[in-house]
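Full entry
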Amino acid sequence: MCLAGLLAFSSAQAHASYQVLNVAGTAGPWVWEVGGLNDAYRYGVGADGSDAIPDYTAPARLKLSDIGVGAGDVLHIFFLGGLTNAFGDIPDVNNNGYVGSVFKDDELGASGQVFPSYYYESEWGKTQNPSDPAPYGLFLQALLGALTDDNGGIIELLTLGTVVYTGEGQGFLVGSSFGIPDGATHIQFGFNDDIFGDNTGALNVCVSSEDNQCAPPVPLPGAVWFFASGIAGFLAYQRKRRA
């Protein structure tokens, strides 16, 4: 599989201060290579070092300078709509994925390998609410992302699919705003899965330099936005794979 091909930009609807990315249901949130790019962040088929070839497709990727932002600026991301499916069927889940599934967080997938959510420990249900973890966290086919350098190397991880413990029950993350760290030149999106080849559907995500540039996200019960410093607990958790 060609690295250049995997890092190809997704088609997007351009505007001076925002773009809408179409994230294919088969997209991984980042590319990894044994002994190379993002090797410490392996997930899915082949993550154990076997000869199996990862079957994710390219993340949907945007160069931040294309919307006029860079390190130190604030970035706004919103889930606009769409559905995907992780089992080859009619798309039926949104950005939060299969809420309630046992496939989530640091659990192993059907391949016996970790999901991308393995590296988001601050998002896990048992981290958010140790006494009642099942309803919360990053579930199968949740929408994930990363801020990366020019080559696709991870600078920070981010999520647009966490089911959040609000203190009163579930909150469904559909938008967030946060500062861009040094070294980050791109933002990219994909899904929380270990076997991608049979996934269907797509989601649309708006990435904007201003918080009023995108159409309102699809209304959801308990929808949650995190703005500015409020995102800190749900962004940028980097955890390297255990040996």
